[in-house]
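Hello,

Following up on my earlier ticket. Below are the two sequence lines again, exactly as submitted.
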Amino acid sequence: MTAVSTGTPGRERGRTPAPAPARRGRRRWWGGQPVGTLLAAPYLVFVLVVFAYPLGFAGYMSLHDYFFTAPGVDVPKPFVGFDNFAAVLTDPQVLRSFRNTAVFLVINVPLTVVLALVLASALNAGIRWASVYRVAYYVPYLTASVSLVGVWMLLFSSNGLVNAVLGPLAPDPSWLVNKGLAMPTIALYVTWKQLGFYVLLYLAALQNVPRELHESAETDGANGFQRFLNVTVPGVRGATTLVLVLAIITGTNLFTEPYLLTSGGGPDGASVTPVLLIYQRGIQQQNPDTAAAIGMLLVIVVGLLSLAAQRLNRER
Amino acid sequence: MRYTRTAALVGAVALATTACSGGGDSGGGEAGAATGPITVWLSNNEQEVGWGQDVVDAWNAEHPDEQVTAQEIPAGSSSEEAITAAITAGTAPCLVYNISSAAVPGWVRQGGLVDLATFDGGADYLAERGGDAVEQYQTDGGSYQLPWKSNPVMVMYNKALFAQAGLDPEDPGMATFDDFLAGAQQIVDSGAAPSAIWPSPTNDFYQPWFDFYPTYLAETDGTLLVEDGKATFDDEAGKAVADFWASIYSQGLAPQEESTDDAMATGQTAMQMAGPWAIASYGDSVDVGFMPVPTSDGRADVTTFADSKNVSMFTACENQGTAWEFLKFSTSEQNDGALLEATGQMPLRQDLATTYPDYFAANPDYEVFADQAGRTGDVPSIPSSIEAWQAFREAYSSAVIFGSTTTDEFLSTAAQQIDDLVGG
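Thanks for your patience. The regenerated structure is below:
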């Protein structure tokens, strides 16, 4: 974490004399490009202060009987080992929140990858009004979730537009108060909201897929779908890994949507998520130790899922 | 290299998914007699802010060396969260005029509140102003909040919709559970409104204060949710109240969804549980009437939920002497009268109606609340209070709103959970 190598390997190899010890020390700390290191340092400090320290502190809290006190109030916060983890792992609501998240990911992640790639490919193919579509996809991503949730509540409420269109086919209970449909509705909402960002990622990646490959495939008789499957998809593999990891992170950090769209994880806990529980336990109920334990479990789960996504999508 | 990249990925993911904040553990408040400038926080209710600024201006004119600055409570999901964060950070003001009793035990545990009874004449002032009722606001034997004002919860109804449904707007005759259900059914069947009543069905810990709890207090003549360290509601009275609300939902008289608008103002519902604040809020837009919370037998003089908001002093306050004097000044008979005049909310004083007879003579709409204010129960001061209310709400939602479990299961499960939490 302390040394960032920005040197160019080819140039390094060209230098025959070994640097002096003092220079070696400086290089060890500052790398081959001290100015670059200096420019990157503020972000490194930001990461350490805003992410790394809280992560370490959350680990500390999760292992102690911890609660927030006013400054100067000295209260024992004894080490309790894995008691907080045992408590949350045997809490039916916590387990349910992870199951709800799994439902969300199963719907949201594949849908995000497929839709984003298909739409990006269509935009990249030079369809008419491409920039209009690009803006249309991106606007939901830029718009505050709170205001979009209001629109979706109007659309998907019992007397909303969607049910009016569906008529007798409308689900009963309605979407947001239906235990089987609440989480899938949230997954659809998040897919729609985030899609513009992922389309942009894929659009950038598609610029690096050589046109010659498409032309060769076409010459070999491949149709549009075959070219998409055998040229485009492998060509954007790196972007797909990024989209997978980001979609998993976004999905597991779900808070605003169940908090607002389904009235705090309803109906009857069908859309409660780990982050919603962290908020309730840590902030509302002042139990930051168990909230931190849920957070640490979430970090582990997200790490493992991201690792699995990366391995599954690795170039063979 | 592959493993380095993998480790970097896992590390980045771990960092990106965690954004907790840590609290410090140093600093502290100073005891009592110091004087000087102080800051107070007010709720963001427009009328209360206006009242608060007038009181502050009057104080500042007389106390040039002890100036008071009034601010609205910082924006947050709720006042309680903003205050909890301020206590932890050591940035709490001297006084906050919008304290919910449910949050007080947690703040006492944090070491964030000052026991007002430790000031000279403190206990006497509280008792003199609030009478015996102040005892129910104590935590661990300490007076960490001054009971300030209440908004006794009653059933507010739209008179025009009642008339349309064929109910007498001046005397709807819905005092018993059965009559209430029949009247509610009449409203829906007549098409006067799509729903009869619309309590918020969200999962927030405080929502029971506006559906189950006022009705339970009425049914039991004021039994609190927890008394002597034990949940009280797993009994016949609790069962009657739970079944009443379950009938409301199962008969389609109240929606299971959150309203996307003000359901009362838009005519989507004919009734709401509300306090006197609603009179000013609805003004001329809706002609509203009020009736007591129903009970199984329609008894007279029912008790209801106080929905009080109180005043607490924080240990972060450096000039607690000034804060105490300002607290007494702002809750004097004169300034309580000004609060009543400005907001219509009931100061938690003894003999309210006889203390301000002119006001109630001039504002007969509020008289019913003044009468009701004498028969209220509040949130019990218990350990893990918010956790207990959250557990209660989840069990209630499951059984009463969504019908996933029975009301018997709700009562026994919630009572057991609350007993465990309160018993530590």
